[in-house]
Each structure stands twice: as structure tokens, then as C-alpha cells.
What does this fold into?
Amino acid sequence: MSDTSRRKLLAAGGAGVAAGAVGLTLPSAQAAGAPRTTSSAREAVVAYVHDHRSSEVRLMVGEREVVVHDRDLATRILNAAGGN
It folds into this structure.
């Protein structure tokens, strides 16, 4: 799957909710003393958690994709997104 079609799929599938969830988790991370570094992203970031039981978080950063394995981050994103 090309990067372009992956972005279109995620955008259509509600990636905006995930992006909002990342925005909701950032203030708590900064309050906990997690300062931004000089290598922090300077463009839009979208987080995607495919499996709620996994620690894998896929980050779409500009034109690239970064996979992070962080159970705490995945849990905070899912909690911020809520559930119905």
C-alpha cells in the first residue's frame, strides 16, 4: 500500500479523532516534565492505534511513518479518545 493511499484511508477512517487524542495527551506529558527536544516534530502528527491490546502506535509525521512500541502512550491515546 502506498503512503498516499494509506493517508487517504486513515483520513477517511477517522484519523482526525486520533490526532485530537494526541493533542489531548500532550499537555499531561508536558506537565509531567517531558520537554520538547530540538529533534521534535515540527509538522502535523497523526497517531494510529490499530489494536487496543497492543503497545504499537503508528505515527504519521509529514511524509513518513514512525512505529513506536509504548503501552503507556497507546493507553493514554485510547483513554483520551474515549469509547462508545
Remarks:
- The chain has a mean pLDDT of 76.
